[in-house]
Amino acid sequence: xxxxxxxxxxxxxxxxxxxxxxxxxxxxxxxxxxxxxxxxxxxxxxxxxxxxxxxxxxxxxxxxxxxxxxxxxxxxxxxxxxxxxxxxxxxxxxxxxxxxxxxxxxxxxxxxxxxxxxxxxxxxxxxxxxxxxxxxxxxxxxxxxxxxxxxxxxxxxxxxxxxxxxxxxxxxxxxxxxxxxxxxxxxxxxxxxxxxxxxxxxxxxxxxxxxxxxxxxxxxxxxxxxxxxxxxxxxxxxxxxxxxxxxxxxxxxxxxxxxxxxxxxxxxxxxxxxxxxxxxxxxxxxxxxxxxxxxxxxxxxxxxxxxxxxxxxxxxxxxxxxxxxxxxxxxxxxxxxxxxxxxxxxxxxxxxxxxxxxxxxxxxxxxxxxxxxxxxxxxxxxxxxxxxxxxxxxxxxxxxxxxxxxxxxxxxxxxxxxxxxxxxxxxxxxxxxxxxxxxxxxxxxxxxxxxxxxxxxxxxxxxxxxxxxxxxxxxxxxxxxxxxxxxxxxxxxxxxxxxxxxxxxxxxxxxxxxxxxxxxxxxxxxxxxxxxxxxxxxxxxxxxxxxxxxxxxxxxxxxxxxxxxxxxxxxxxxxxxxxxxxxxxxxxxxxxxxxxxxxxxxxxxxxxxxxxxxxx
Length: 616
Ligand SMILES: CC/C=C\C/C=C\C/C=C\C/C=C\CCCCC(=O)SCCNC(=O)CCNC(=O)[C@H](O)C(C)(C)COP(=O)(O)OP(=O)(O)OC[C@H]1O[C@@H](n2cnc3c(N)ncnc32)[C@H](O)[C@@H]1OP(=O)(O)O
Ligand SMILES: Cc1cc2nc3c(=O)[nH]c(=O)nc-3n(C[C@H](O)[C@H](O)[C@H](O)COP(=O)(O)OP(=O)(O)OC[C@H]3O[C@@H](n4cnc5c(N)ncnc54)[C@H](O)[C@@H]3O)c2cc1C
Description:
By secondary structure, the protein is mainly alpha-helical.
């Protein structure tokens, strides 16, 4: 199919090599080539062909995705893939923006076995689980409790005579609920999205399991019922850490899809007039459309950068823990908590903005933006609700203030809290990314000090830490967000500095995106900068001008920057986001193919007939 002339023209501009940026995003040329190979292994294999999942009922969707997910597992085994990124490539190429039915088995059942099973148990369960010889799920949440783990009601009473645990969900609120990939007991019913996952309920009534079913690498129960505590009790929370540490990159992936769709479509879509008689411009030439999408484009790159960094950091900490070193578990937990919370929240807001920016066609499943949205938005609740996780980060920051007062060294990701910040010169409209980073770190430091003063005063008055925290939860959450933004901007600046050395032309365009991210973040909290006397009105006016100027620099690069995400059309599955930009013809073809247009509308005639007969 010929290339849409608008997109063809967009691809003749640009100042950097798209392929080189794709290689950087993938982590090197070899990884790009391997990703292409794996995608083709799926796309050329007829077993992965099937009905357009956007036309399927919940039951049909579950069946079709289960069929495909089993094919994904077979393909992954056939190709001997064990790298998580490569396995995710095969999965994403097959799932058409859905979450597969067996996802929870791999991310929430296998991971805890890996982390908390002893060697014997690994042989018994982890090895067969990795081969899908046993299928598991993660049944923690109950009808009455999800966030407050210490409030869970399920009981495991030890029967010393039989060396067994007797499991019970003694109350209705104790019923296990939301259990992804939970079979045989019951499905909790239709949901907002996640149609490919059978989130189940599980009632336990005197279910007996052997003593050695308790994962014993951390804590264990001896034959006489004595509980031997793990060296570090918090490691039992570790199974939730793996998914949280992975979800920032998942957010980046989903936001990258949405901005690819919205930016390509905004170049194809012509609407209204700027100069009368000069034809309808591309909607991406409107400043308001750029103001919707370019900060999100910058955000997608920022989130990808920090998502890769978080996964590397977490993997290092897990290796340390496997060797018995727990000193970085707390930092890993609060980084994963803050990044998972902020990134997934801003991503679902961003996907919605992308959908709105595509007008009516964004509301059609032909765009796939609604599919991406309803499946992504769960990530702001699942694996730790947003506020719950931000409070974890906030409590850690309050401890950092005490550490600072006591001269205790801080973890590297919060070292900036011990730095002094000053800004004397007036900002013009070309503030560099390092100055923007300093400002964002300054705000986080000041906010942390400000919140800590309130919490301390409350603690003095009540002597109760939980009460003190509860009275200031709103500003504690804001404090955690401010810190997380400093972590994101630091990772982005660090990566762009590195790329500026290795590939100046790519680095330059990414530094523009980094400035857009930083300026947008500062303008979103301009009042704080005035209140803390870090910026004046003139500074804010100048960086507002800078933002609109940056949009003009990014405009000719925008399509190339989303092309660099390198989504195959069959993976993106969006008619608005097609690489060739042939939207209208394919929208019409897709609509005509809808089963709704094939059904005999007997029902229509039957009921309308009644109206006519009713002699209204
Ligand atoms: C490998 C993955 C690969 C890819 C993924 C890709 C795609 C996936 C696609 C879809 C999947 C996404 C989602 C679907 C799966 C969803 C599955 C679930 O939802 S499972 C259930 C999740 N539930 C939760 O997250 C519950 C949230 N609540 C909590 O975690 C806890 O209640 C709490 C909020 C942390 C409170 O804990 P507690 O009540 O004990 O009290 P404290 O706050 O005082 O904490 C005590 C102490 O422990 C430390 N700590 C807490 N949590 C952790 C942790 N996870 N790791 C390490 N340390 C932890 C805390 O800091 C305190 O320390 P102290 O201050 O005492 O030093
Ligand atoms: C798609 C999806 C898949 C899931 N898969 C699984 C799974 O496979 N296994 C599993 O075990 N669970 C699973 N869950 C459940 C999920 O982990 C919980 O829904 C999540 O932990 C939130 O807990 P909750 O639902 O009890 O919300 P609640 O904690 O009841 O939250 C409700 C509101 O109360 C607020 N709140 C609660 N506590 C506090 C507090 N201390 N301070 C301030 N505000 C507070 C929250 O911020 C929120 O606004 C899944 C959920 C979803 C949506």
